[in-house]
Amino acid sequence: MPLYANREELKNRPARDAWVDIDDVEFFTLGNSDREAQGEEPLPDEWPDPITDPEASLHTTHDIAAARRIIPTTPQERLVVVSGEAYVETENARATLKKMQWIDVPPSGAVVRNALNPGPEGHRGQVEIVRIAGHWSEVIRTAIFTFGPGRPCDYHYHDGDEYWFVFRGHFTLHYRGEDHEVTPGAILAAGMGEEHGVVDPAETFEGVGFATQLEGQGRDGHLWRPVHGDPVETR
């Protein structure tokens, strides 16, 4: 089961991971600036990256562009709002997305804007979005997950491939009898039948879960050995 520390490792993954149908995952924010960010325009030097610096303020948003134009570089791209509210325009649709809602970006691209109402001082809060890019043939689940003390992720497997993108928090992943330390920005690719879980998280962590087409017996959701039998790995 590949575990990539960051998106650069994912984009430069070895040939043995050719089955992974996610090519890039990006976490970006929308703030208050009237300018429109182009492509992957970097944030100003004085604004900490929320992935590498989890202590970054969520309130000083005036230097961050309030809008961004997305032009796909892969066959499929999906935007998932993980906090706040965003307004998305494509050539054929307009939609306001709230937390846990998503939209697929057409080949012609999209413009996504901060849709939060200004506060008493005229400033809007920050919107957080995850962009998933790849070449999948089907998606069966896109969800935001939150685990933490007293709320573990049980040890399980799937009849299909599942991906995690962690955007907040640290935890220890249990996989095949070994422990792996996971930090913000990491991408987990769990192939069909590969057991994984977080038994006793020490802190709260959040991420986006993304599952592609079902295989094998085609059972959706978490599967456990005592209930569903031994897993069959295909990767």
UniProtKB/TrEMBL annotation:
Is the keyword Oxidoreductase assigned to this protein?
Answer: yes
Please give the Pfam families that the UniProt record associates with this protein. Cupin_2 (PF07883)
Superkingdom of the source species = Bacteria
What keywords sit in the KW lines? Dioxygenase, Oxidoreductase
The record, for Gene3D superfamilies, names: Jelly Rolls
- Where does the Cupin type-2 domain start and stop, copy by copy? 144-199
Q: Does the keyword Oxidoreductase apply?
A: yes
Q: Which residues form a coiled coil?
A: none
Q: Name one GO molecular function term.
A: dioxygenase activity
Instruction: Write the protein's name.
Output: Quercetin dioxygenase-like cupin family protein
Mind giving the lineage of the organism this protein is from?
A: Bacteria, Bacillati, Actinomycetota, Actinomycetes, Micrococcales
